[in-house]
Automatic annotation (TrEMBL):
Organism of this sequence: Macrococcoides bohemicum
Pfam families referenced in this protein's UniProt entry, alphabetically: EPSP_synthase
Subunit annotation: Monomer.
Residues at the catalytic site: D318
Functional description taken from the UniProt entry: Catalyzes the transfer of the enolpyruvyl moiety of phosphoenolpyruvate (PEP) to the 5-hydroxyl of shikimate-3-phosphate (S3P) to produce enolpyruvyl shikimate-3-phosphate and inorganic phosphate.
GO-annotated biological processes: amino acid biosynthetic process; aromatic amino acid family biosynthetic process; chorismate biosynthetic process
GO molecular function terms listed in the Swiss-Prot or TrEMBL record: 3-phosphoshikimate 1-carboxyvinyltransferase activity
HAMAP family, alphabetized: EPSP_synth (MF_00210)
Listed name of the protein: 3-phosphoshikimate 1-carboxyvinyltransferase
Pathway: Metabolic intermediate biosynthesis; chorismate biosynthesis; chorismate from D-erythrose 4-phosphate and phosphoenolpyruvate: step 6/7
All copies of domain Enolpyruvate transferase, residue ranges: 4-428
CDD domains: EPSP_synthase
Similarity remark: Belongs to the EPSP synthase family.
GO cellular component terms, A-Z: cytoplasm
Species lineage: Bacteria, Bacillati, Bacillota, Bacilli, Bacillales
Length: 435
């Protein structure tokens, strides 16, 4: 007997984190008033907002209407910050802003929390230096704090032709943001296509970024083409993922998740659920720059194992913790590979997912680039005291995993969920109550 009854009802998850960050950045760089509708107001996006406020941008948050209003004077009117810019727990803020700050005629210093201090920054420092940016980082240019300093207050950024070595949308975006100010074109090639929200939003702001053969092409002096616009943010599929999986694995569940962003570079979890035989269906709501769907899931008694690897990994990288739980419920052995990037997230998510699911009694093993999950093999829990390790996605994974247990578990540092989904526990309770 599982503890929870089925989750039922409708839900709207908060706005997409990646899209909200990019809208704050582009709205701040442009001139004029713009609105971000249904943004994520989680801690990571608030870190991005606070940094632009320190650069002098007028940004208001209306929590009631769920809007961010930016009244910007353009990047030329930014002021030199007098303090270290705090990126909190947000890798996206740190990496994307390293590209943005590169084009500003002053010195800025960025650093974040203990987790950010461990995350690799050489991946952005190296390409930015190739573009002529004066950026240094601690630990031999590999970690925060990052110091970005325009020589004699003159910005001099070159374009670059660059074949990316890491599978990372944050690195791609850092180069593209720096490339906005470049005096020659940027040509960027990815090994594997990562989320393309930066490219799509550049186009919404009037910038002619386009794919040329295998390269993303950004013309020189693109910053001068920026025209501000309002941005409607779709629901975050990475947040929806927790309820997609809960709906599939908790007996009696039937959930509709409204207005979720289903951009193909992000929606790998849908393909995984289909491959496993999960009851899921999508109904298109809008087919604009970022496609939006309602997603309906129903409890599925018979799920089959599947493997996840290669080009699929960037399309579901943040969902892997909760996909691993889904796989524990499937018949057979599932393998996740090519996912070494998980080791450099808020925590080492290969280790922390395996440790947490093992403690719950599941049979799962860590590998060098992923994990092996032996479905439907469960022993009793080793202890009821767990930790999110200050990683929001591990916290939410544990809260959903607990629904399958007869005993209540304790999750230390569950507040970590505020990074990407502040209303997560409330939404979960609401679905448990059936509305
Ligand atoms: O560009 C982005 O908004 C993000 C890209 C991904 O990181 P990487 O680019 O490091 O893979 C993802 O894990 C992160 O949550 C958000
Ligand atoms: C990895 C994540 O975010 P970031 O890299 O922005 O810290 C995440 O949200 O799971």
């Amino acid at each position: 007997m599982v503890k929870s009854k089925g989750l039922t009802g409708e839900i709207k998850v908060p706005g997409d984190k990646s899209i909200t960050h990019r809208a704050i950045i582009l709205g701040s760089l442009s001139e004029g008033k713009m609105k971000i509708i249904d943004p994520l107001l989680g801690e990571d996006c608030l870190s991005t907002i606070n940094i632009f406020r320190k650069l002098g941008v007028d940004i208001r948050v209306n929590e009631v209407n769920k809007e961010i209003i930016i009244n910007a004077q353009g990047y030329r009117n930014f002021v030199e910050p007098t303090q270290v810019l705090d990126t909190g727990n947000s890798g996206t803020t740190t990496r994307l802003l390293s590209g943005v700050l590169a084009g500003l005629p002053f010195m800025s210093v960025m650093s974040g929390d203990d987790s950010i201090a461990k995350r690799p920054m050489d991946r952005v420092i190296e390409p930015l230096r190739l573009m002529g940016v004066d950026i240094i980082g601690s630990q031999n240019n590999s970690r925060t704090p990052l110091v970005i300093n325009s020589m004699n207050n003159v910005v001099n950024i070159n374009g670059v032709t660059y074949d990316m070595q890491v599978k990372s949308a944050q690195v791609k975006s850092a180069i593209l943001f720096a490339g906005l100010y470049a005096k020659s074109d940027v040509m960027l090639k990815e090994q594997v296509t990562s989320r393309n929200h930066t490219e799509l939003m550049f186009q919404q702001f009037g910038i002619e970024v386009e794919k040329q053969d295998d390269y993303i092409h950004l013309p020189a002096h693109s910053i001068d083409k920026l025209v501000t616009t309002d941005i409607q943010v779709p629901g975050d599929i990475s947040s929806a993922a927790f309820f997609i999986v809960a709906g599939l694995i908790i007996p009696g569940s039937h959930i509709v998740i409204r207005n979720v962003g289903t951009n193909m570079t992000r929606s790998g979890i849908i393909e995984v659920v289909k491959a496993m035989g999960g009851q899921i269906s999508l109904k298109s709501v809008s087919d604009g720059a970022e496609p939006i769907c309602d997603i309906e899931v129903k409890y599925t008694a018979q799920l089959n194992a599947t493997d996840v690897y290669g080009d699929m990994i960037p399309t579901l990288i943040d969902e892997i913790p909760i996909i691993a739980l889904l796989m524990t419920q499937a018949r057979g052995r599932s393998v996740i590979r090519d996912a070494e990037e998980l080791k450099v997230k808020e925590t080492n998510r290969i280790d922390k997912v395996v440790e947490s699911l093992n403690q719950l009694g599941y049979h799962i093993e860590a590998t060098d680039d992923g994990m092996i999950i032996y479905g439907q093999e469960k022993e009793s829990m080793q202890s009821t005291r767990f930790s999110s390790f200050n990683d929001h996605r591990i916290g939410m994974l544990l809260a959903i995993a607990n629904l399958l247990e007869t005993e209540e578990i304790e999750i230390d540092h569950i507040d970590a969920v505020n990074v990407s989904y502040p209303s997560f526990m409330n939404d979960l309770r609401r679905l448990q109550g059936g509305n």
